[in-house]
Amino acid sequence: MLVQFYNVSKIYPNGVKALDDISLRIERGEFIFLMGSSGAGKSTLVKMFFREEIPTRGQIFIASRSIVRMKRSEVPKLRRNIGIVFQDFKLLENKTVSENISFAMEVVGANIRDIKIRVPEVIEMVGLKGKEKCFPGELSGGEQQRVGVARALANRPLMLIADEPTGNLDIRISTEIMELLYDINRKGTTVIMATHAQELVRAAHKRIIMLENGRIISDSLAGEFFL
Amino acid sequence: MIIKNMLYFIREALNSLMRNRLLSFATISTVSISILILGIAVLMTMNAGSFMNRLESDVEIIAFLEKNLSSSQIRDAGEEIEKMDGVKQLAFVSKKEALHRLQENFGGKEYNLGTTIGENPLPNSYEIKAADPHNVADIAKKVEKVHGVYKVNYGQGVVEKLFNITKWIRVISVIFIVLVSLGAVLLIATTIRLAIFARRKEIKLMQLIGATDWFIRWPFFIEGILLGSLGALVAIVLLLLGYDSLISKTDSIYFFSLLSDPIILSKIYISLFLTGSVLGVLGTYISLNRFLDV
Asked: What are A184-195's pLDDT values in tens digits?
């Protein structure tokens, strides 16, 4: 078991209750969709995984460690085991594709030899060979998100968190990104993806967790849910 | 970890300096003006201090002896004075010597005081130097009571005034230096704050990826130290040139001899350089604490 949420609630200082008594169990190697309309609590839930938000009540364990009681100085270590893919890609505009990916390794103190080997590896994995020297501005949206995925994979995370990764992409490109994520999952990485793109989810036959008003209203396989 | 990443930190710091070229230039200029003022203040204080010290060490007590003392009585008085606490140096000035000095100072070659005034009217005396100029007044009081001494001279009041003046010069310089340094720190803090804002997307990303707090902080500290020490360097070069030409220009004015000991001066310049770096660290620290949530 990789992740365990026990009765997690989150109330923001302004009184908004984003999560309400969430309990959840995620095994190693799973592929999970987090679904729900905007405001359902998806974003808050996603942020809990890498301790960007801390529960107001409840406990979260990742790899048997409480990340609620975790010291601030231990947070970087947690995050190095989690790759994050963002809706808006968050690429650094003044760095090339290669540099954006090696940046992620440099900031966690990887040594230069490893970086030199790993960067071309992940670039090939996401199908961007030949674009290493391009700047993000010279790439299409789909290509930029591939860079985002490559960067998230660079440090060989246990878990990949994708927050609306296809939110800014059209359906054809989205399907390509999904294929990439499935491929990563098949190689053993746990993938958690927040989305509201029903057409992607329906085709997938993966576990779906539906959120509404901060509560889990269903947790099931796609086939069962959409019958 | 830190050593391994130093190259990365320095590269990032230099990139940031170059990215905000104009601002970096403005900050370095302002820091150098601040350090320049600081340096001028320090040099002024040091020079005033050494000038005062010279004046202070010139303060001596003169004990005039009664006219009809025997040579053994004169010796006894001298021994008694020499034994007193705080007396550093004692010199006997005979009446003949005293007349000789008077002749040198006022007579010159044209008037022979010895023949003009007939018998030498001057008394024998002891010149006493105190180990610590602050004790001059106390010692003078004790000397006055020694048998055979009929009058004591020590520039009553002048000594106290001198100490007052030096004290005020020091106080004013310190206030000045503190204010100027504060200004420099705040400017560096502003520059670093802008550097943080320029990179805040990158910083956020670094945090999410798993960079440690210190990994994020280091480049800013290096940038701050660079700003501070580059500014100090410019100021030191200007000071060196300016002070050198000042020394050569005032060389001929004898009572106004400037401090020129190369060891003391190089210590001052090194301290100014270190001050620049410290100002850089302080400025960075302020901005990192206020504007960087790491």
From this structure: 999 999 999 999
Q: What residues of chain B lie within 8 A of the CB of A106, using their CB?
A: 5, 8
Q: Could you tell me if B8 lies within 8 Å of chain A, comparing CB atoms? A: yes
Rounded to 10°, the helix A112-125/A97-106 angle is: 130
**Residues B31 and B97 grouped into a single domain:** no
Nearest by CB: A108 against B4, B201, B211: B211
Helix (H) or strand (E) holding A84: strand A82-85
Contacting residues of A for B209, CB less than 8 Å apart: 79-80, 84, 104, 107-108, 151, 155
Query: B12-21 in b/e burial notation, b at 16+ Cβ within 10 A?
Result: bbeebbeebe
**Range A33-54 average pLDDT:** 92
| CATH classification at residue B93 | 3.30.70.3040
Q: What is the pLDDT of residues A129-151, one digit of tens each?
A: 999 999 999 999 999 999 999 99
A77/B205 Cβ within 8 A: no
Q: Is residue A115 part of a domain?
A: yes
Q: Do B208 and A92 touch (CB under 8 A)?
A: no
Q: Which residues contact B124 (CB under 8 A, 6 or more apart)?
A: B64, B65, B69, B74, B92, B93, B94, B95, B98
- Test mutation, B209, B214, B216, chain A, max A CBs within 10 A: B209
Q: Residue B203: closest CA among chain A residues belongs to which residue?
A: A107
Nearest to A108 among B4, B205, B210 (CB): B210
The token duo for B115 is 């023949």
For residue A104, the chain B residues in CB contact (below 8 A) are 209
Domain with B212 in it: 2-55+161-291
- What is this structure's pTM? 0.69
Segment A148-170 shows an average pLDDT of 93
* Predicted ipTM of the assembly: 0.86
Pairing between β-strand A17-26 and β-strand A3-11 as defined by DSSP bridges: antiparallel
Distance from the A73 Cα atom to the nearest Cα atom in chain B, whole angstroms? 7
In this structure, what DSSP letter does residue B122 have? P
Closest residue by Cα to residue B29 from B266, B187, B180, B196: B187
Domain termination residue (choose one: B106, B125, B154):
B154
Q: Which residue of B has its CA nearest to A101?
A: B209
Burial class (CB in 10 A: 0-12, 13-18, 19+), B54: exposed
- Of all residues in chain B, the percent with pLDDT exceeding 70 is 87
